Amino acid sequence: QVQLVESGGGLVQAGGSLRLSCAASGSIFSINAMGWYRQAPGKQRELVAAITSGGSTGYASSVKGRFTISRDNAKNTVYLQMNSLKPEDTAVYYCNAEGLYYSRSTFNSWGQGTQVTVSS
User: Fold this and answer.
1) How many CA atoms lie within 13 A of 65 on its CB side?
2) Which residues fall within 8 angstroms of residue 57, CB to CB, at 6 or more apart?
């Protein structure tokens, strides 16, 4: 089993910054992609940003230019630097990781979520 532990959420004023972290642990052979999703009240969960093991990244159009995803492969950790935050960024942010166990079976795991609230 793979555990993902997120940290770094909180309350910030519009225009401010937050940095989210997510550390993966367990019987991990390799992690292919890691990503951040978010879910606002009454809305579906959406992809915010993702990064491959090789460092290729992708972003939702709503956050491009403001958010930066990065990862430390040695620590199985992914980060999300969020700048110029807007009230519409308020949501629960979830970490996701896809990869292989030592048994070579695949996993797709989620963190417990961390609340990000941006006040206007």
Assistant:
1) 3
2) 49, 50, 51, 69
Residue 8, by phi and psi: left (phi above 0), alpha (psi -120 to 50) or beta?
left
Residue 45, both tokens = 């969960």
List per-residue pLDDT tens for the chain, 120 residues long: 899 999 999 999 999 999 999 999 999 999 999 999 999 999 999 999 999 999 999 999 999 999 999 999 999 999 999 999 999 999 999 999 999 999 999 999 999 999 999 999
Residue 55 contacts by C-beta under 8 Å, 6 or more apart in sequence?
71
> Whole-angstrom Cα distance, residue 76 to residue 74?
6
- Report the candidate in 74, 63, 59, 76 with the shortest Cα–Cα distance to residue 111: 76
